[in-house]
Design a protein that fits this description.
The complex is a heterodimer of chains A (133) and B (89).
Chain A: H1 3-29, H2 33-36, H3 38-63, H4 69-96, H5 99-102, H6 119-124
Helix pairs in contact in A: 1-3, 3-4
Chain B: H1 2-26, H2 30-55, H3 60-84
Classes of the chains: A mainly alpha (133), B mainly alpha (89).
């Protein structure tokens, strides 16, 4: 393996590992969950992405042919990361945020969509918008 | 050169896993713990990929892919359980 490939692979591994470490450090440092959600996305995209691209370059230089496994992992992580973040934020909102006090009112007839499914709130809300809106 | 980079990478990711473990144990809400577990899965995927580079074996990609799939399913199932009290309604 030539020195250029080695340097490129090493750079990608170091950059990816630094992003993974920064993501986990942010998970410790940031003050509450909705801000903490932001930090591990760096580990998912730049961190794992960097190591995966490094692995692609390494096996390309080692075996002479392109390897496609890494693209599968990247695609799967990029597809699932927004869904998990959405679910975690939704669980947090339902348990620790009072929608009437903490969230601003929406401009339309309906409330915040994640709280619309709660039966007690749907019953409490008038069917017609009040004149105050 | 790659060996030193791999050593740095293993050290950094292990440290990141310890930080995640701290959040998993300390995290004040359930959502914090789920987020810490999801981040641990992501970091373990990076660790497995680095291990595959060290062993010069493409066999470990399947393990990483399985971790990605089961980590996703586990996180979504845990969040649904917290939200609904049931995983499959």
């Amino acid at each position: 393996m030539s020195i250029y490939y080695e340097a490129l692979v090493s750079l990608l591994i170091v950059a990816g590992s630094v992003f993974v470490l920064v993501g986990s450090w942010g998970l410790i440092k940031l003050p509450d969950l909705l801000r903490r959600l932001h930090a591990p996305t760096k580990a998912t995209t730049a961190g794992v992405g960097g190591t995966l691209v490094g692995s692609m370059v390494y096996f390309f230089a080692l075996k002479g042919g392109p390897s496609m496994h890494e693209l599968l992992i990247t695609l799967f992580l990029f597809l699932t990361a927004p869904i998990t973040a959405h679910f975690i934020a939704k669980a947090y909102l339902h348990f620790h945020v009072d929608p009437a006090a903490a969230l601003p009112p929406t401009s339309g007839e309906h409330g915040w969509s994640t709280f619309d499914a709660l039966p007690e709130q749907r019953n409490a809300r008038p069917s017609e918008p009040t004149d105050g809106r | 050169m790659i060996e030193y980079a791999l050593g740095f990478g293993f050290t950094a990711i292990s440290l990141a896993l310890l930080l995640n473990l701290w959040r998993l144990v300390a995290g004040p809400t359930v959502a914090d713990r789920v987020l810490a577990g999801d981040t641990m899965v992501t970091n373990v995927i990076a660790l497995i990929i680095l291990f595959g580079i060290q062993q010069s074996s493409t066999m470990y990609f399947e393990a990483a892919l399985l971790f990605a799939m089961f980590g996703f399913v586990g996180t979504v199932a845990y969040c649904r359980f917290v939200l609904r009290g049931d995983v499959i309604e």
